[in-house]
C-alpha cells in the first residue's frame, strides 16, 4: 500500500473510501469488498418497472441468476434460526415465494 501504519489506521477509521483504495485493499487481502456492496444493492433495489410493448427489443432476453450462494445461505439461515418467516423474507427482499420454496427444498436434503 506504500503508506505508514498511521495512514492505514486513518483509512480504517474513515466512513468512506475511494474505490481505488478499496480495490487495492481487495487485491492485497484477496477479498472482494465490492461484492458486499453489490449484494446490498440487489437486495434493497427498488422493483423494476414492467416492460412496455414499446420497450421490447428484437434481441433475445436472457435472465441471469442474480442471487449469489452467499445471499441464498444468508436467507436460509434466517429461516433456519426462525428470525424471519418466508412471507417476511418475500416482502422485505422481494424474492419470489416459489424461488424461496425451491431453495428451502434443495438445501434441506
Average pLDDT figure: 82
Low-confidence stretches: none
Task: Give the biggest sheet.
Answer: none
The termini sit apart by: 46 Å
- In N-to-C order, the SSE pattern is HHHHHH
Give the overall shape: elongated
**Category by helix and strand content:** mainly alpha
Would you kindly provide a written description of the structure presented here, covering whatever features stand out?
Helix content is 58%, strand content 0%. It folds into two domains: 41 residues, no CATH class; 44 residues. By secondary structure, the protein is mainly alpha-helical.
Write a brief structural summary.
The protein has 109 residues and is mainly α. The chain has helices spanning 5-13, 19-29, 33-44, 69-80, 86-93, 97-107. The longest helix is centred in the middle third of the chain and has 12 residues, at 33-44.
SSE topology sketch:
Blueprint: H1 5-13, H2 19-29, H3 33-44, H4 69-80, H5 86-93, H6 97-107
Features:
109 residues, 6 helices, single chain, mainly alpha, Transposase, 58% helix
Amino acid at each position: 500500500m506504500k503508506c505508514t501504519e498511521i495512514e492505514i489506521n486513518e483509512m480504517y477509521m474513515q466512513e468512506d473510501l475511494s474505490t481505488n483504495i478499496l480495490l487495492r485493499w481487495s487485491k492485497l487481502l484477496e477479498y472482494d469488498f465490492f461484492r458486499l456492496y453489490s449484494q446490498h444493492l440487489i437486495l434493497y433495489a427498488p422493483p423494476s418497472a414492467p416492460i412496455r410493448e414499446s420497450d421490447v427489443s428484437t434481441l433475445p432476453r436472457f435472465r441471469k441468476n442474480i442471487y449469489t450462494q452467499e445471499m441464498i445461505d444468508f436467507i436460509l439461515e434466517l429461516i433456519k434460526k426462525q428470525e424471519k418467516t418466508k412471507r417476511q423474507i418475500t416482502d422485505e427482499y422481494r424474492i419470489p415465494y416459489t424461488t424461496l420454496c425451491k431453495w428451502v427444498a434443495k438445501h434441506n436434503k
